[in-house]
């Protein structure tokens, strides 16, 4: 986690760094800071808390930081050391002539710290990062260039990191390197940029160069050089990014979460375009793998992406009749999993950076499995680790709580299920095309679901007024939807919430039920709707207040529930998608009612790049 930025160019460094950090704040917001080259010295400014605290401090500095040309910045998600000014980045090394920002974890920091202390360095923070600052300062003091010093430091550092540094001795220069954590260089005219993710720089450039593991990038206003681990210069073509700067702005919405919920129809449209024809035929020729002999599938992911995986299992097994296991990536990597070259491993990750998911891919490669990544982030680490990639086209997702990425992940899994079913001939072509045609309705049905839910939200939020916890219940595909609804609620409103299979509730969680534990029931269709209704009756008998997610014309749901969050009538393939929307909005409005920051919930970060 953490976000880093760098700028070398005109006298507008602080403006560029702050704008970049604003777009990286989703990666962590425990503290933020800048290190700037001013008058032959390095000056730092750091503040605990969200970026606005740093912004305020800069504003109060009487123009001190106005005409700076080069610097680096950081927004922190604390790993080593609590959020405090001492632990905030940038960290200074030696005699304060070198400053460093870092994203990731230096695993051997304790050993390095001991060595450096023995050599007379004193530490001002509890962070693992400070060892990098001192390692660099030591070499620079001995006469190395900053690039040479970083090259030497890389040989000592273990773990995952993206690091950027400036030195008072080299005005106008930034050096940076990475191992496992992301880092991109942005190319400008008379100025160059550096960031953890392209989102940070979209207002400045659309031309980027990826820095690979072990490489060192050296940036000045007029040049970008990349050096390989052997010290030789590497030539790499820049790549373009189609996202525009507006995609990372609020565009009139109060929060990114609300904006991203409303962007779901467009995100689905973009994700299905070119892959699902008017006749419902699927074209996944972009998948660079032979899917025809897949005998078994394992889906690995974390959090919301894991819930998408559970829905993918349901659809793939139902349509293609291929057995699917869904594993939480952090468990999978240590589980000594069974698999072979006929196992397709699908790794789902919005960010494409999640360490646990990347490690699960490594595990899968260990037994010869073929890995297909589903990600929203072109050029992310997962796209390089996987054997093939299917991009979700949700556009940048800024809010920490995932919404539009989830829906597009489910849609991509639906496409994959249709393609696998075609290859396996488990259904007739006509049947598959009918399902494909239904899937094409996703954008408009989601639009309807948003409109329908919004009018009933007030009543649903009222049910939560004195709630101390909540149960989300569903069966079949409504179960992963319930899990996702509970996750959304707990992560942004801090209310304990459990998602449970409705039929299993009587084996334990029913003990939670009283009038202060609302039950959100996702009813669905067919026989499971009947069964879920009976389970819900059992909670009503124990005093539960019910919010039902149900077909707009469901009279029984209206009888049993305090509030119905209506969803449009849809074909089976769309049921989980439309049922998710009211739960996203419910979580959003409950959190807003409680006065919470929905985009930046406490303790969380968008990219989880630590184990
Ligand atoms: C919840 C949420 C997280 C992520 C999880 C995986 O709203 O966003 O649970 O889904 O951290 O992240 P990615 O998909 O980037 O691997």
Helix content: 25-40%
How many separate domains make up the residues? Answer: 3
Q: Structural class, from secondary structure content?
A: alpha/beta
N- to C-terminal distance: 11 Å
Identify the CATH class of the largest domain.
Alpha Beta
Shape verdict: globular
> Would you tell me which CATH topology of the largest domain applies?
Glutamine Phosphoribosylpyrophosphate, subunit 1, domain 1
Report the mean per-residue pLDDT as an integer.
94
Strand residue percentage: 15-25%
What ranges have pLDDT less than 50 throughout 5 or more consecutive residues?
none
Which radius of gyration do the C-alpha atoms yield? 25 Å
Largest sheet: 8 strands, antiparallel
CATH architectural group of the largest domain:
4-Layer Sandwich
Features:
single chain, 611 residues, alpha/beta, Glutamine Phosphoribosylpyrophosphate, subunit 1, domain 1, Rossmann fold, eight-stranded antiparallel sheet, binds fructose -6-phosphate
Structure description:
With 611 residues, the chain is of the alpha/beta class. It contains 18 helices and 25 strands. α17 links the parallel β24 and β25. α14 packs parallel to α18. It starts with a strand and ends in an 18-residue tail after the last helix. Fructose -6-phosphate is lined by residues 302-305, 349-351, 354, 357, 401-402, 487, 491, 608. Residues 302-305, 349-351, 354, 357, 401-402, 487, 491, 608 line the site of fructose -6-phosphate.
